[in-house]
Amino acid sequence: MKHDAIEVATVSDLIATLRAHSEGQTLWYRGQGDKSWPLVPSIVRAYPDAPVETEWALLKRFRQNAPRLLSEAVTTEWEWLFLMQHYGVETRLLDWTESPLLALYFSVYNDERDDTDAALWVLDPLHFNHSNNCGGSIPGDFPFCGVDNLMEGYLTRNVMASVQSPQNPIAAMAPRSSARIAAQLGVFTVFHADFEPLENLCERQHVWKYIIPAASKPRIRKDLEVLQINKFSLFPELANAAQLAKERING
């Protein structure tokens, strides 16, 4: 599938486009405010010279200070990685959502980028995994972080030990243990020690993007607000509840 030339200028455009292209398969979505940004995780954008080693150092520093601030114990390395991702620490995780409308929101929410075309990326995760020999035990099955042995090789400590033998990224599920991940219908691609942009793999057969024209962003934001897709619905936290209350009262 190669749909990169298609523009999506309205919510209804997105629905019609997906109806034509989905073909009944499972798809994941990711919105990015600039169509030129590659599909690489935050750790390689911030620390391109030593991403794995830096993630390991960040993980240790984070674990040093975070435990006394947590209301519930975090026990596994996967839980620590997802907690770090939740609070904006760079990791090898790349966020996706099962909802195209939520991904569309992330494509357009930042009005400071209204002069730049955005991208709505689409991933066919089952075929992507199959092409990398990471398919599940039955059709429709995904590797699960902390459950499937396959994922143990993607833990930071194990990637550190095999950095000279990098593996391809893998599309995986994880516990939706935070309100944010649950609200965003979060799923992930987990990178190993090879940080080739995801879109360069599989000759774009299982990863493609739609273009959101810059001029369409304000209208799309208004339409998504009508559908109650906003900062609070995606980030259900007290600060955003307060902001939404003021916006609704002040108009």
Q: Can you summarize the main beta sheet?
A: 3 strands, antiparallel
**What overall form do the CA principal axes indicate?**
globular
Poorly predicted ranges: none
Strand content: 5-15%
User: What is the tally of beta strands?
Assistant: 6
Number of helical segments? 11
Assembly level:
single chain
Radius of gyration: 18 Å
Strand order, main sheet: write it out: 1-3-6
Question: Could you tell me the mean pLDDT?
Answer: 91
- Helix percent reads 25-40%
Head-to-tail CA distance between termini: 43 Å
Order of helices and strands: HEHHHEHEHHEHEEHHH
Structural class, by secondary structure, is alpha+beta
Description of the molecule:
The protein is built from eleven helices and six strands. It is an alpha+beta fold. The protein has a three-stranded antiparallel β-sheet with strand order 1-3-6.
Q: Brief overview, please?
A:
Helices cover 38% and strands 12% of the residues. It contains 11 helices and 6 strands.
Write the layout of secondary structure elements.
Layout: H1 11-21, E1 28-32, H2 42-46, H3 51-65, H4 77-86, E2 93-97, H5 100-108, E3 118-123, H6 125-131, H7 156-161, E4 170-172, H8 179-183, E5 186-190, E6 207-212, H9 217-226, H10 231-234, H11 238-250
Name a few traits of the molecule.
251 residues; three-stranded antiparallel β-sheet; 11 helices
